[in-house]
Specification:
Elements lengths: L2 H118 L1
Length: 121
Amino acid sequence: MTASEHTQLVELLGRQFAAIDQQFTAFDRRFTAVDGRFDALERQLSGLREEMLGHFDAIYRRLERLEQEYQAITQALRRIEAGLAGERGRRDILERDLAELKRQVSALQSRIDEIEHRLES
């Protein structure tokens, strides 16, 4: 290989390495741009995740309140039902007592009628 050929080869290889270096630089810029886009997307997803978790927390708080209200309503309904059962029992007693009073009034009325009949005769 002559000195001239050697120089031409070095120049050719230099140009090729420069072209390859430019391609690597272009790829590096692309990767940097894609990396930046991924970082931006990651920030957006992180913000969205935080927002979703906040919404879930609000939903869980509402469900907890609804559960507490449901338990309170259920207990109040049980108390009302127990009170109604007691009222039914008292009403039954009052109805029996009323029937007994009616029977006694009827018996008294019969005796009064009998006494009046004797007095008239």
